[in-house]
Amino acid sequence: MSEVPQSALPGVSRWSVTRLLHAHVSEVWIRFLLAIAGLVLAFAAALFSTVSRESGDMWTTFILASAALLLATIVGLTTVPYLARRVAISRVREVLDYDVTRAGIAYVILAVLIGVGALNTGNNLLYIVLSAMLAAMVVSGLASAVVLRDLDLELRLPEHVFAGREVSGRILLRNQRKWIPSFSVSVVPPKKRKPRYVWRWQEDEFAFPPGRSAERQWFRLPDRALRRLPAQVPPPAILTGAAYFPYIPAASEVSAELALCFQRRGRYAQEALGIATRFPFALFRKTRSVPLAREIVVYPSVEATDEFFEVLPLIVGEFETFLRGRGYNLYGIREYMPEDSARHIDWKATAKSGSAKVREFTREDERKLRIIFDNPGPEVISEGSYEKAVQLVASLAWHFSTEGSEIAFASQEHECSPDLYGFLEYLASIEPASTTSLVDEAHVFGDYNLVLTARPRGTIPTGLWACSYFIFLT
Question: Under a CB-based contact definition with an 8 Å cutoff, are residues 163 and 265 in contact?
């Protein structure tokens, strides 16, 4: 049995690691002792069934023989594979990594009934039938092992994935054998493992007398307690369904398209995949695990939402007004628009024409825009509002990056950068954090700032209103 390295459990003492190993070993020993007890009971039942048959008690013989066969079958189908998967020899694990199908359960029950009948009657024909059925089970195991040998698996995933948008992946299976094909093979996700727990020291208090309220206790001292806590939860799996390959010719490669759709942003990982088959009789489903480390980052959805359509015209109007006022050379005079600033009205042209006219100036610089996501702290806004804010900033970043502006992105843990996909990757795993607000530093990021913040409106510095558009999350 492999050892757990001390570095794999940070913050855990050597004694707690030893206790964790002992807990794992004790579970294996319990299974082993239960298997031995089951086999002993099965052997005793078989002996007493022989004695009762010689004495002529047929009902006792039937009950004891049935119990012996059932106990042996249960031990063979459950405990033996469990113990074999924990040995160091990988080939032994692969041979015994199987699941019994519904057809296999019915087949085993029928074999048990025929075996009981053969023991009770001594009919040679029943023994022959039972032997043929047991031989078919052996052949099924050997054939499935041959089908799964020398199969290589490859998983190809798209580079950019957005939440809620369907993308295509591909699974490739290569048959390395020169002469023998494979039949009825499925690529399946690995089996779900039980949650892992680790022993960790945590800060605690020693109070005396115990069981009383804090006001009635004599003294309280800082202490440390060893607690069994769940280990880190692994990221969600990439592949949750199965891909079926009915036939894989020898020395060839086959592929299958995967329709992937992830509903939530974040990181998805796949540590391994299983190659399974029920060939040839569908009595057992044999699976071979293939290590396949893959990770994919799912960006937030950039689909336009109601909030997006509400704020986009306002942002565009403010941005264009800011740009038109940055130059010094007169570009032209045109009709007044609702989004224009009143300081650009040409009063002489307005008086002559009888309608409001505004002056446009040439721009001396490029269309520079900075999108700043001022990440709020925990519990500042609700979880649903936070997810909507992340989706809104991703949608705005995607929209303005296609509008020809020189755009950059910034947040507390993301330096000001023009890399769109780098910013979306950052948003994919962002969480509320207690960090310093970026609103006070917004003036250093660029010419015009689009700021999403949860700070109250009254705390915004006055000088930022002329060069920034604020979207308040609260």
Answer: yes
Q: Which of 107-121, 128-142, 183-197, 334-348 has the lowest mean pLDDT?
A: 334-348
d(CA 327, CA 320): 12
Sign of CA dihedral 311, 317, 320, 325: negative
Give the C-alpha separation, 339 to 319, whole Å: 10
Task: Look at residue 33 and give its three-state secondary structure.
Answer: helix
DSSP states along 111-165: HHHHHHHHHHH--HHHHHHHHHHHHHHHHHHHHHHHHHTTEEEEEE--S-EETT-
Residue 173 has pLDDT above 70, yes or no: yes
- Compute φ and ψ for 52, nearest 5 degrees: -70, -30
Is residue 406 within 8 A of residue 368, CB to CB? The reply is yes
DSSP class of residue 218 equals S
At residue 429, the 3 state secondary structure works out as coil
For tokens 């309220």, name the residue.
213
* SS3 call for 402: coil
By residue count, the chain amounts to 474
Q: Are strands 368-373 and 449-453 parallel, antiparallel or unpaired?
A: parallel
- Which structure tokens are listed for 228? 């069994």
Strand bridging mode 182-188 / 266-277: antiparallel
3 state SS of 378: coil
Specify the long-range contacts of residues 305-312, CB closer than 8 Å, at least 24 apart. 305/388, 305/391, 305/392, 305/395, 307/388, 307/392, 308/392, 308/395, 308/396, 308/399, 311/392, 311/396, 311/471, 312/396, 312/399
Most confident of 187-191, 197-201, 323-327: 187-191
